[in-house]
Amino acid sequence: xxxxxxxxxxxxxxxxxxxxxxxxxxxxxxxxxxxxxxxxxxxxxxxxxxxxxxxxxxxxxxxxxxxxxxxxxxxxxxxxxxxxxxxxxxxxxxxxxxxxxxxxxxxxxxxxxxxxxx
Amino acid sequence: xxxxxxxxxxxxxxxxxxxxxxxxxxxxxxxxxxxxxxxxxxxxxxxxxxxxxxxxxxxxxxxxxxxxxxxxxxxxxxxxxxxxxxxxxxxxxxxxxxxxxxxxxxxxxxxxxxxxxxxxxxxxxxxxxxxxxxxxxxxxxxxxxxxxxxxxxxxxxxxxxxxxxxxxxxxxxxxxxxxxxxxxxxxxxxxxxxxxxxxxxxxxxxxxxxxxxxxxxxxxxxxxxxxxxxxxxxxxxxxxxxxxxxxxxxxxxxxxxxxxxxxxxxxxxxxxxxxxxxxxxxxxxxxxxxxxxxxxxxxxxxxxxxxxxxxxxxxxxxxxxxxxxxxxxxxxxxxxxxxxxxxxxxxxxxxxxxxxxxxxxxxxxxxxxxxxxxxxxxxxx
Amino acid sequence: xxxxxxxxxxxxxxxxxxxxxxxxxxxxxxxxxxxxxxxxxxxxxxxxxxxxxxxxxxxxxxxxxxxxxxxxxxxxxxxxxxxxxxxxxxxxxxxxxxxxxxxxxxxxxxxxxxxxxxxxxxxxxxxxxxxxxxxxxxxxxxxxxxxxxxxxxxxxxxxxxxxxxxxxxxxxxxxxxxxxxxxxxxxxxxxxxxxxxxxxxxxxxxxxxxxxxxxxxxxxxxxxxxxxxxxxxxxxxxxxxxxxxxxxxxxxxxxxxxxxxxxxxxxxxxxxxxxxxxxxxxxxxxxxxxxxxxxxxxxxxxxxxxxxxxxxxxxxxxxxxxxxxxxxxxxxxxxxxxxxxxxxxxxxxxxxxxxx
Lengths: 118, 381, 356
Fold this sequence. Notes:
The complex is a heterotrimer of chains A (118), B (381) and C (356). Chain A has 118 residues and is α+β, with helices and mostly antiparallel strands. Chain A has four helices and five strands. In chain A, the strands form two sheets. Chain A has a three-stranded antiparallel β-sheet. The longest helix of chain A is centred in the N-terminal third of the chain and has 11 residues, at 4-14. Chain B is α+β, with helices and mostly antiparallel strands. Chain C folds into two domains: 1-74; 94-352, no CATH class. At the A-B interface, helix 1 and helix 3 of A face helix 2, helix 5 and helix 6 of B.
């Protein structure tokens, strides 16, 4: 019981270290450049080749017709691994910083090209 | 007086099993006579998925095995395939791999000790542990874009080179970490209550441990010097100066000390690696592996449907923070593996729980179980 | 001088006491006035303790969080000050479940058995030179006796829940409580020996020159540890830990009844802090703060010392892990009781030799 004296000293010191909580809804942490969040497709660069579709492990991407041919992402299946970004020959697909993607139904999780074009 | 044995079920959803693991405890009064773990609540069929995805597509799935330390999982699979095909990896990529893997080891031990103490009731340690983990995770976020499932180590190197500012931030982290570890030690090592709960609890002898197949810090806490980084050095571990931490007693306290020592050794390794980081490419130049013609030359990627390793099989293992992680890959010449078998450390370490807790009480079961440090993602795959 | 006298003084100042008293005496029911004043005293004490308990719940979460490098409640009110109100409202609106096979009468009364002694124990605790409900001549014995009623409440709660795990938990909690009563009482006795009287005001008065904590450090440590074990805080809170197989004796309680247990715990904490302050830290003694009435300055000193003890208890909660139940009882009987006895003997010797 007497060994508590050691911890007391350290708690006193430690009590002065900064508090590291980020008050979430009011402040958000800054994201890195390479953060893998929601996809974004560049309208002019994408050629609709389909390389992203076949490199996805989960069959998340489907190329659909929307003006030209663009990818559609089923976020219910996506694991945000980034293999599609690596595969794109025109560097038209990037993953951006949006991570608050909770939604109210499975159908709304399918991001058709109009929601991901930039 | 006849007392009958009671079977108590410590259910899958329990605040102190590290995941969903169910125990059937056969108890005689307060003393545990036998324990039967029932697993499988987190089975996701990873090994079967290995047969249906191409090699590159399987790499993200390996991340999700031991999700707390994901880099060594990536690396184990990638190493197996590289051995199968004979791919040469540039030195800079090897150094980067070692840096991220050792950082991951530190983080894993922090989480292990933190959740162990949370089970015992001192919830400050887990908060401090996660504060450190946060720093490392933001390093990883800078590096590869994700905080838990990295998908960073690829065949022939790593995915992308170090971003600017990474080395400075890592050095900052290295500078402040030793004082934090000293803090944790001071908080816990001499604390009498801690010692009362940990010493002589969960004893496992060296012979038992080897027979059951336990590896990692659990084995090294029982006076067996078995560290794969020293016995069969892989990657560039031969060039670093570190020691394998071994303790003699074999109880929970010894395993705790092994983890603290290993954290310090990992810090040393990362520092040496940062000091000697060679220049060069991070992607192998072996023909057939390379990059797309059009992709930026620092990105390691290749056409997923074309990569066909030669026929053959390979078993390769690495020293993951929890033990020996081994991948047995059988290839039949097509672009999908024929079989991927994962030898996960937590699955084999879990078997030791029976020997450890016979004759103890339930709070001791919780303490001893946490000292083996398993993750259910690894056990159930 | 105690609260009763203070209120009589206030009524005199308002020039209300004399007329009403003589009016009632004419009809021989002067006792109504007395009862009324006692009622007012009780309400004041209850209100003060209740407010302090609410503040303590907030303080606990804040201190616990700051030790862990995080903030604690920040959203409700400025730095989370309205958090206890939010908690209270939530708990009151929860559905009041009584298990089907439980004994309804016992089930309802158990929280009160635990809760009322925690308030009753405030009677002889001096908050200031005359801020005391009643300066009982047997103050210390009253305190020890009243705090010994809570294990009964715990047992009743566990039994009335009709859940074998609750009963086991209640038995363990009661065992823990009563085994730490002994060192508690023995160290309090050592203080009584030093002070020469059982009354709390006398004990405080004897500490004018030097606080008893310096005269009797061993006694202080024993009393502190024994009281932390009595209250069931970490490191001795195996009953409330979620990681144990049995969830404790108050599993079946929800809503308002749970509020009573919860409040009783914090009221007990405040009461123990008050007792430790009285016995060892010199009660309300302290240098006079200028510009304030002496009573108020004594009151402020008392509160400062009380909160120091409370802060220590919360700080301890963040630092150490739990002790196993058998180790806990082992320490209680094998270490604490002999130490308390040695303490008593030692100070008896010293006093007989005339040293102290």
